[in-house]
Design a protein that fits this description.
The complex is a heterotrimer of chains A (271), B (272) and C (347).
Chain A (H helix, E strand, L loop, with lengths): L3 H19 L33 H37 L1 H16 L2 H11 L5 H27 L3 H8 L4 H9 L4 H25 L9 H10 L9 H29 L7
Helix pairs in contact in A: 1-2, 1-10, 2-3, 2-5, 2-8, 2-9, 2-10, 3-5, 5-8, 6-7, 8-9, 8-10, 9-10
Chain B lengths: L5 E12 L2 E13 L4 E6 L5 H9 L6 E6 L2 E2 L5 H10 E4 L13 H11 L5 H15 L5 H4 L9 H13 L5 E5 L7 H18 L2 E6 L2 H7 L4 E6 L2 E7 H6 L4 H9 L5 H10 L1
Parallel strand pairs in B: 3-8, 3-9, 6-7, 7-8
Antiparallel strand pairs in B: 1-2, 1-4, 4-5, 9-10
Helix pairs in contact in B: 3-4, 4-6, 6-7
Chain C lengths: L4 E12 L2 E13 L4 E5 L6 H8 L7 E11 L5 E3 L5 H10 L1 E4 L13 H12 L4 H14 L4 H4 L9 H13 L5 E5 L7 H18 L2 E6 L2 H7 L2 E6 L2 E7 H6 L4 H7 L40 H5 L5 E4 L2 E3 L29
Parallel strand pairs in C: 3-8, 3-9, 6-7, 7-8
Antiparallel strand pairs in C: 1-2, 1-4, 4-5, 9-10, 10-12, 11-12
Helix pairs in contact in C: 4-6, 6-7
The chains are: A mainly alpha (271), B alpha/beta (272), C alpha/beta (347).
Chain lengths: 271, 272, 347
């Protein structure tokens, strides 16, 4: 792998996912201890404690999974929608394309925050699937446009025409001839969508639009804000830890994309 | 009728552009017979590529009809259309664009074979792919199966394109400037491959080129038609068109081509 | 007669991801006043690089690593072009030697009228009163068979490919250079336009007397335009001689192969053959003679050492260990009707 940054990003991401997924199996139960409120980092509590005296490090380890899970789901949902409809619209053209573009434009113009707030007031957004679907539903328009533009250009290539001449059929041509040429593009868009979904999710928790059912990173930020943790220097880690974790996660995702082109483009592989 | 594979019947094609309409192809009639070669010669803008695409069914003419065994191809559906599609194949000019960069040679050849049920299973596909690669002189064939297009030279890519065109056992191959982007010293070898396909498999060819010398070499035993501004200005047996041209344009073309012979060249310049 | 340009052991390298690559590996030749020299070869032989290097117009990743390019100026002084300062080089270019690039159709600034581009070119090198400048520009356009009234006020996109090519040739002649270097002057042009350009170049040479180097893959073009021809392979000149020598008595197997692969509209239908294999990668040249893997005359000594250019006739050299064995049967050159008979070529 020639891109060292990309490889590093990949390793960090994998580590974080491992910790987030497997870590919670090994963490001790969180104990509420009112006498140990906002303790600075110490031997017993490596990152200190929160407003209820609970250990922050444990919360950090526990708190990654919900965030990453929803991020991945949301990314997957929106990428899938964008790929299928973006490529179909571009390839088939005509009324199919017009309908798809119109729907995309409408969704694009909907103000997300407001709609989220309305939804939050009407329903309890507690299940990760629900959150993922909602977040995914907002992310696909941009991606669809990019996919559509790419497919527009690729469908004019001679090898696509050759596939048409060989009567290979539209689904095959779209999904086995055209899309594989966009593999790294798609992966990168998936990652970007994921990072956006994670930010959106954390934002939801922070604003209190999503109910807090477990100790995820977003919830930690919400509590830090509402309970005034940011005003105490002792409780700094309560605020910083989730922020830094989220930032590292995003950074690793983004740097990972540097390797994608290399892995997915046969031309760049050593012959 | 049985003698005619593809017939272009008074075909015209008009493009609408900002500056008005252009008749890219103007009332062109051609007959492509089984096992025979027809060279279509013209300069850029003569309409030869559009004509080729019309004959391949890639472009629908605005006027006139393209007939396959008597039936208009744009009215064919289902099995009948598939029959046409399999019988008429096309080789593009640019070997760097006509192969899918993310597919290796085996995949490029096996996909149409499998899709049309011409082989069953991977082993049969592999065997047939090896046969096809031998047919186009890519030897040893096994070495080429796992290669990607960027690992092949222009000439090799073009041969893979020919092999791919052969997968459906076509009756007619339309070669659109198939050698223009290849080095001079390997053009002939590709043409020899095509000639062998004609001799061994009885495949007919519609050979598009701007190079009359190539048309002469490839189509000597067939017909040559000269196009200018969308119309066919002269057509006939190749030796006749080359040696005894009738139309002014053909004569002008022949006189303009540089000859690889210094004495003749000086002689021609001195006359001019 | 003294040569107007002398190239000695020129080596040009490119920096690539895989390391430095020598695109030109030691080229030497002379160009005499008024003569026309063709550099013929296929893709990857180094001919374009050589053409660019002569006027030090290499792209950023290319550089001349060694060698000399000695130029004799009008005043008789001989300078090494590779040692000129940037200012001297700027004055040298266009007034002493000019270049017409490949893909010239795209070399004109699409935002400027032809008149302005031509004037800018002159003004960059000379101070001239406006009316004199106007006359010069009109004059030179007429020389390339273009109508100044039609062409001067036009934008490049309003001109055809052939006209643009002629404008570029005209521009190169504005300051009356002694040498004109052309890279693929007729590629991508229609046959009849090619003929027009060839005729124009003939005319101009007769009138203005400049020396010409043109780079091409088109062998027939060399027959039309060149006094001497050099064939290039894998970064070196492998045969050099008068045009008749090269076409009728080639002594390098590659030249023979090339001649045997070019179809002609004139004459009998000949038996043509490709040269088997393909050009070598400059990153991994075969040992000894780079052509040896594809050569019908190759023997053990060909793999051992790369041959140098050696004399095979008056003013005719070839770089082949077995040049004395190389034979070529000239195809009968009749301008009349051809027959069905196939004429075999080769010994």
């Amino acid at each position: 792998m020639r891109s060292k940054a990309g490889f590093a990003g990949f390793i960090v991401f994998v580590l974080m996912v491992l910790i987030a997924v497997i870590g919670p199996l090994f963490t001790p139960q969180l104990v509420t201890d009112v006498t140990a409120v906002y303790l600075p980092p110490s031997g017993a509590h490596w990152l200190g404690t929160d407003s209820e005296g609970r250990d922050i490090l444990v919360q950090m380890i526990n708190g990654g999974r919900p965030v990453i899970l929803v991020g991945v789901l949301a990314g997957a949902i929106s990428t899938l929608i964008a790929i299928v409809f973006g490529s179909l619209g571009a390839y088939l053209g005509g009324w199919v394309d017009s309908v798809i573009v119109s729907v995309t434009d409408i969704v694009l113009t909907v103000p997300q925050i407001i709609l989220l707030a309305v939804l939050a007031s009407l329903y309890t957004l507690d299940s990760p699937w629900l959150l993922a679907v909602i977040l995914g539903a907002f992310a696909w328009p941009y991606l669809l446009r990019s996919v559509r533009a790419q497919v527009f250009s690729l469908k004019e290539r001679e090898y696509v025409e050759a596939a048409q001449l060989l009567d290979l059929g539209t689904p095959h041509i779209l999904f086995r001839e055209i899309l594989p040429n966009m593999a790294s593009f798609i992966m990168m868009n998936f990652v970007v969508t994921m990072t956006n979904a994670i930010y959106a999710l954390v934002g939801l928790y922070f604003l209190g639009l999503a109910p807090i059912v477990d100790d995820n990173w977003g919830a930690m930020l919400n509590k830090a804000w509402t309970r005034g943790a940011i005003f105490f220097s002792d409780s700094l880690f309560y605020v910083l830890a989730p922020i830094i974790a989220i930032s590292i996660l995003q950074l690793s995702l983004v740097t990972m994309t540097r390797s994608f082109e290399e892995i997915l483009n046969p031309r760049l592989r050593q012959s | 009728m049985a003698d005619q594979l593809i017939v272009l019947d008074q075909v015209s094609h008009v493009f609408s552009t900002r500056s008005g309409q252009t008749r890219a192809v103007d009332d062109v009639s051609l007959v492509l017979e089984p096992g025979k070669v027809l060279c279509l010669v013209g300069e850029s803008g003569s309409g030869k590529t559009t004509t080729a695409r019309i004959a391949a069914g890639l472009t629908k003419p605005t006027d006139g009809a393209v007939r396959f065994h008597g039936a208009d191809i744009h009215q064919l559906t289902g099995d009948k259309f598939t029959e046409f599609r399999r019988a008429v194949q096309y080789i593009h000019q640019d070997p760097y664009a006509s192969l899918n960069p993310v597919r290796d040679v085996f995949s490029t050849l096996a996909t149409p074979l499998r899709r049309h049920g011409l082989v069953r299973g991977r082993e049969q596909a592999r065997q047939r792919a090896v046969e096809l690669l031998s047919e186009v002189d890519l030897t040893p064939p096994e070495n080429f199966l796992a290669k990607f297009p960027h690992q092949l030279s222009g000439g090799q890519r073009q041969r893979v394109a020919v092999a791919r065109a052969l997968t459906l056992n076509p009756r007619l191959i339309i070669a659109d400037e198939a050698t223009s982007m290849l080095d001079v010293s390997i053009r002939i070898s590709l043409l020899n491959v095509l000639q062998r396909l004609r001799d061994d498999l009885g495949v007919a060819f519609l050979f598009i080129t701007h190079d009359l010398a190539l048309a002469k070499y490839f189509g000597w035993q067939g017909t040559t038609a000269v196009m200018h501004q969308g119309r066919i200005v002269e057509s006939g047996p190749t030796p006749q068109v080359i040696n005894e041209p009738v139309h002014e344009y053909t004569k002008a073309l022949l006189a303009a081509i540089p000859v690889p012979d210094p004495d003749l060249a000086r002689h021609r310049v001195a006359r001019a | 007669m003294e040569p107007i340009l002398s190239v000695r052991d020129l080596v040009v390298e490119y920096r690539t991801a895989a390391g430095p690559v020598r695109a030109v590996r030691g080229v030497s030749f002379d160009l005499y006043p008024h003569e026309s020299l063709a550099l013929i070869g296929e893709s990857g032989c180094g001919k374009t690089t050589l053409g660019l290097a002569l006027l030090r117009l290499l792209p950023k990743l290319g550089s001349v690593s060694s060698g000399e390019v000695r130029y004799r100026r009008r005043d008789g002084e001989v300078v090494d072009l590779l040692k000129l300062s940037r200012e001297e080089l700027r004055r040298f270019r266009w007034s002493e030697a000019a270049m017409v690039f490949q893909g010239s159709m795209n070399s004109l600034n699409p935002l400027l009228r032809v008149r302005d581009q031509m004037r800018d070119t002159v003004r960059a090198h000379r101070r001239m009163p406006a009316d004199e400048l106007g006359r010069l520009v009109e004059d030179v356009l007429r020389k390339v068979q273009l109508d100044p009234e039609r062409v001067l006020p036009a934008y490049p996109h309003e001109l055809s490919g052939g006209m643009k090519q002629r404008v570029l040739i005209a521009m190169s002649l504005l300051l009356d250079p002694q040498i004109l270097v052309l890279d693929e002057p007729t590629t991508a042009l229609d046959i009849r336009t090619q003929r027009a350009i060839v005729d124009v170049l003939h005319e101009l040479r007769a009138q203005l007397g400049f020396a010409m180097i043109f780079v091409s893959h088109d062998l027939p073009l060399a027959a039309e335009l060149a006094d001497r021809v050099a064939t290039m392979y894998a970064g070196r000149i492998i045969e050099l001689g008068g045009v008749r020598d090269l076409f009728y008595q080639p002594r390098h197997p590659y030249t023979v192969g090339l001649l045997g692969a070019v179809p002609s509209v004139v004459g009998d239908l000949s038996e043509l053959a490709s040269i088997p294999g393909g050009p070598p990668s400059l990153l991994a040249l075969p040992s000894g003679c780079p052509f040896q893997p594809r050569c019908g005359y190759a023997e053990a000594d060909c793999e051992a050492a790369e041959p140098d250019l050696a004399t095979v006739g008056a003013g005719h050299t070839a770089a082949c260990h077995h040049r004395d064995r190389v034979t070529y049967t000239r195809k009968p050159a009749t301008a009349g009707p051809a027959s069905d008979e196939k004429v075999a070529s080769g010994g």
